[in-house]
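Regression report. Comparing outputs from two consecutive submissions.

Submission 1:
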Amino acid sequence: MNIGVIGTGNMGTILIEAFLDSGAVKADQLVITNRTLAKAFAIQRAHPGIAVVADAAEVIKQSSLVFLCVKPLDIHPLLQQLAPHWTNEHYLVSITSPISVEQLEAAVPCQIVRAIPSIANRALSGSILVTFGSRCSAACRQTIDDLLRRIASPVYIDEAITRVASDISSCGPAFFSYLLQRFIDAAAAKTAITKEQATMLATDMIIGLGELLKRNLYTLPTLQEKVCVKGGITGEGIAVLEQRMNGVFEEVLAKTHEKFKEDVEKVKQQFP
């Protein structure tokens, strides 16, 4: 089965490289294109065997499973432009959250899947949020599950939690890398440690934290209990965080949901 990728920006490239690194897909099974073809050719140079084609229509002609990795407001015009080429045999996978599988099903005859990736998938880790359309056959569901499971943990979600699930799994790496960078910058600014040393220690710490959780050695609350000895140094730091962080993530979620609603409303104007 040939797999097509329309759009080789950040997430499209991450998916391509993860599929190749995991061995889930061979280079000669991939057919890709991008509005700026130079980006697609750069991927081809790194992975000889990938086919770069001139436009999205050619991707559809040569592929049975197509990943649509373009911006939300570009999807409806593209689907209309490609209308003559879609069939009910195609598996169409959209990676964007503001467009529902129901809206996509209303626009094309394909078997529709929404799969929202995370940058963690590049390391063959993290979650990928999956919602199947009503037309997906058992074969489609199995094919998609088998493919995605090679690069991530598929998590099947309802429409109602799409945004918050994406906030955690997809936006989360950016949120927490920002916090970690602020921690590093503060350490270098307030003490004699260099930024390079602080970065090394923080990187090792976050990897080790992930391993503790992955191996189910601790939960988040029990981990805090083990490190935060009553009356100790960690407890003093936690007290500052409790004071300063109160309401921060509630506000973060409020902002992401507000922006999401704006995007959903813009998309609604495009889709019947």
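Submission 2:
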Amino acid sequence: MAKYTADAEKLLQLIGGKENISSVTHCATRMRFVLQNPEDADVKEIEMLTAVKGTFTQAGQFQVIIGNDVQEFYNEFTRIAGVEGVNKDEVKTDAKKNMSILQRMLAALAEIFTPLIPAIVVGGLILGFRNVIGDIDLLQNGTKTIAEVYPFWNGVYSFLWLIGEAIFHFLPVGITWSIAKKMGTTQILGIVLGLTLVSPQLLNAYAVASTKAADIPVWDFGFTQIPMIGYQAQVIPAMLAGFMLAYLEIGLRKFVPNAISMIVIPFFALVPTVLAAHVILGPIGWKIGDAIAHVVYSGLTSSLSWLFAALFGFLYAPLVVTGLHHMTNAIDLQLMSQFGGTNLWPMIALSNIAQGSAVLAIIFLHKGNEKEEQVSIPATISCYLGVTEPAMFGINLKYLYPFIAAMIGSSIAAVISVSSGVMANSIGVGGLPGILSIKPQFYLIFAFCMLVAIVVPFILTIVFRKYNILNKVDDAPIRTFGAKEFRTSSRKADNL
């Protein structure tokens, strides 16, 4: 640990001293601080430290990129600073004091959907595979599917729906559980609430549109009747019900004596919530979800779809920087429920690829910068696998021009994707593997979109650097495709 002693001491000083640290932890590659006064941190000097490969601030946390030795650095830093580290959940809680109300709302949304993403990704891949073997006429001169010709694959097609149905039709169970977990309330009550929204005794949400009003089953209370409608795959009804249950339980805890809390709290939290979910929250949430989905879908299928796509493709990366991108998960899921797929998510995958390609161009331009490559190479790989934050905060935003180049490339690829009607089965791995979640009939055109998202940002980044477009900080020697290197520090962008 001695090799990090000097840098740890300097970092403590540059971050504003021990008294400026509210809490600290680390993840796989970064030190994560919540600072009393974030403006006291000398970012430029911190980034000059040998052990530091970059910094960025996100969700109220000041994060210092160290690399794979972060555990060793962290141990030395906490020893020198005389502070005790906390776990990541405690840091997130502490960081909320540095966040606006909007940022807190978005952070809450992210915390709800993040635990669900692995299942949704798997579900998307399963739906894509089922489409290939059971819904596309590939055999016997394009007249039969693989499942129709081969009994084995017919069995696979049928079996995989067991998993697909569990993930998407029963999604409200995951949402209400996740809300209970996030709010610190009783998780099993969240699960029970979710199950009451998708119970087999209810009319399946997918069958509501084709069922006559007189044929919809009801609970008859004599003085009133309540439609027995399920909320399979519905996002907003589940969220409204989940939050009502959580806040009821939290409120009841304040005045119900411990001696009877085990009986009183679950009953008076769960029963009113289930009733409200089917009488008020469910119908309202359904209409809100429908409205949002139709607005987005209409924007992506109207005569101005190219403009919508261009703007979304261009602005998605800045949304990630602000944290606003978390709202797209709910929209994607609503689109899947309403239209059997999402044309929004493919653009997100393309944006991730574009950011990675811009970093790839920086690697080419700055070849030999070993310190930067410790950030840029893993960041590129991370982008191509769907995680863009290391690339954007560690490289692209630092120089700006690669960030803009990626936004332009993403915008062009998004226009092609939307104009071609590309649809994904569901949310997937948001980088190169994202093609596995695309509906099979769009594989070729989406592959072309991916190529655009790779080539355009790469070329634009090199062009922007060569002519100092949007470049105010990068004056390092760069490489061309020939053997000759050139330096452009005397032609700063300030003169453009």
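Expected: both submissions complete independently.
Actual: both completed, but the second showed a warning that disappeared on reload.
Relevant detail on submission 2: The longest strand covers residues 21-26.
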